[in-house]
Amino acid sequence: FVRIDFEGVELKYDRSDISDIILSAPKLQEPAQSDKTESSPNAQPAGKDNVDAFKRGEEFLAKNSLWEAIAAFKESFAADPADAKSAYNVAGAYFLMGKFDDAIEWYRKVIAVDKNNVNAYVGLGITSRLTLKYSQATDALSQAIKLDDKSVIAMSELAMCYQVQEDWPNAVAWYKKTVA
C-alpha cells in the first residue's frame, strides 16, 4: 500500500503509481471568473479570522467543494503568511483538480514558509513529474528523502522519474530501496 496523508485524511492505494488514478479522474470544470470565490483583499491579521477561514476550508474540502476550499485556505494564508498548512491545502486542492501549475506554485509557497515540510517536497516532486519537469521533480524528491530517508513514496516517485527518462541504473536502485 501507498499511504498518503492529506491533512489528517488517510488515503491508501494498493500500488505506488498514483498518477494513473489522478490522470484518469474526471477533470473539474473551472467556474467562470465571476463565479470564483477569492480570498478577501482586506484579510485580517492572524487570529480568529485565520482559524475560521481554515475551518471553512476544511469543511469545503470534506464536501469536495474544491474552489471554495481554495478560497478559504487562501484567505487563511493571507491572514497568516507563516501558515504552511493553509498553503499546503491550497496546493493539494489544485493537485486534485489537475491544475498542476497552480499546485506547483503553492507547494513552493509551503516550502518557502517551512523548508522541512517533507510532504510539500513530495507533492512538488509528484506534480513536477506529472508535468514532465523531471529535473525539478528529482530535486524536490531528493530533498524529501534527505529530510525523511524512509519516505517510500518519495523513493518510488524518484524511481519513476528515472524510469520515464530511461535512466535504468538509477530507476532500479531507487525501486530496490523502496522494498528494502
List keywords for this structure.
mainly alpha, two-stranded antiparallel ribbon, 63% helix, 180 residues
How would you characterize the overall build of this protein?
This protein has 180 residues and is mainly alpha-helical. The chain has nine helices and two strands; from the N terminus they run ββααααααααα. The protein has helices at 19-24, 48-62, 66-79, 84-96, 100-113, 118-130, 134-147, 152-164, 168-179, and strands spanning 2-6, 9-13. The protein has a two-stranded antiparallel sheet with strand order 1-2. Helix 3 runs antiparallel to helix 4 and helix 4 packs antiparallel against helix 5. The longest helix has 15 residues, at 48-62. The protein is elongated. The two termini are 15 Å apart.
The level of helicity is 55-70%
- Termini separation: 15 Å
Mean pLDDT score:
81
Strand content: 5-15%
| Structural Rg | 17 Å
Given the C-alpha coordinates, what overall shape results? elongated
Work out the helix count.
9
- The spatial strand order of the largest sheet comes to 1-2
Helix and strand composition category: mainly alpha
* Number of E strands: 2
Which regions contain 5 or more consecutive residues with pLDDT less than 50? 1-45
**Sheet with most strands:** 2 strands, antiparallel
What's the SSE pattern?
EEHHHHHHHHH
Summarize, please:
With 180 residues, the chain is mostly helical. Helices cover 63% and strands 6% of the residues.
How does the SSE layout of this entry go?
Elements: E1 2-6, E2 9-13, H1 19-24, H2 48-62, H3 66-79, H4 84-96, H5 100-113, H6 118-130, H7 134-147, H8 152-164, H9 168-179
Antiparallel strand pairs: 1-2
